[in-house]
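Supplementary Note 3. Input sequence used for the single-chain structure prediction.
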Amino acid sequence: MKVEIWSDFVCPFCYIGKRRFESALEQFPHRNEVEIVYRSFELDPNSKRDLPGDIHDMLASKYGMSREKAMAMNFNVGEQAQSVGLTYHFDMMKPTNTFDAHRLAHFAGRYGKSAEMTERLLQAYFTEGKHIGDHETLTALAAELGLDRDEVAAMLSGEEGKTEVRSDEQEASALGVRGVPFFVFNRKYAISGAQPTELFADTLNKVWSEAHPLVFVNGADGESADVCEDGVCGVPPTPEHKS
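The predicted structure, written as discrete structure tokens, is reproduced below.
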């Protein structure tokens, strides 16, 4: 089974949705046969790398609300994060453009570290208050995972990874993705948003059962006289004993 996840590193519900999906996956008996692919999505492609103010100011400005109301909204999101074991420090978050962070995630994928890089970037932004638009910060985060610091710095200073990010975004548009997180299962079923763990679990089981139907070994349709159905048991008649 293949699960593709479109997300952005500054999307609070993406991190929450990731945890809920991971919780469902942990309970899934065939979890070792699930391929997870992380796809790029930018909530604000036009965002600048360095922005004035904090996350509360940005939210207030974007939706035309007071700073106090923005803080209350963020507090509610923080409570949801706590429910899945995450700690959000909104006062420390540094809003930024995430294009280079997505380029780095694709670069890490070439070394089999896409999942680790995705998790590290989310943690760095939401919990540690790191500036994930800054090249030095991104290079340091990649080095923590064992990636070559010089190679990462060279990649970030060039054009590498841009095609991959744009390709993911174009594919998202073609699929009708308008917001993230967005989960696609075997290119047949989709879940939009940080839905409950139970929905992810049900979807994993549904997709698996459709891809791996049971095969009867006692006939094409599994018919048998020795079976009980709908309150009736098909027991063959016993021959009468003759003395």
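The longest helix spans residues 67-83. The first strand starts at residue 2 and ends at 7.
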